[in-house]
Amino acid sequence: MAETIPPSLVLITIGSVASVSIAALFTGGLLPAAGARARARRRGVVALPATMTSSRASARPAREIGWAFVIAIPALILPFVIRAAVVEGVATATEVSTIGIAYTVVAGLLIYRQFDWRRV
Questions:
Q1: In sequence order, which residues have a C-beta less than 8 Å from that of residue 22 and are 6 or more positions away?
Q2: What pLDDT, on the 0 to 100 scale, is given for residue 28?
């Protein structure tokens, strides 16, 4: 649900790439958010304290943060690849999803080594 609940970077990206009103996308994300909240309340789900939901950067050594950033660089490049493909006219907003999937599979197989060839 994090992709649809405002404020969402995914909604902002979709709005800018597809020329859709970001305000309309945010408004459209409010109903699923309300539904998710109501469902969680019915099931008795409680929120974790803020200290447990995020790890503070100041508590981690700079070297560890830097290494995590280096590892994340290939994944962080994906939004730029998608945006460049649409802006340069290489692909439409729909075709970009295939580019994103292909990039993710290649990164998972060759860079992160989290997929195996049989599953692909």
A1: 11, 12, 15, 16
A2: 83
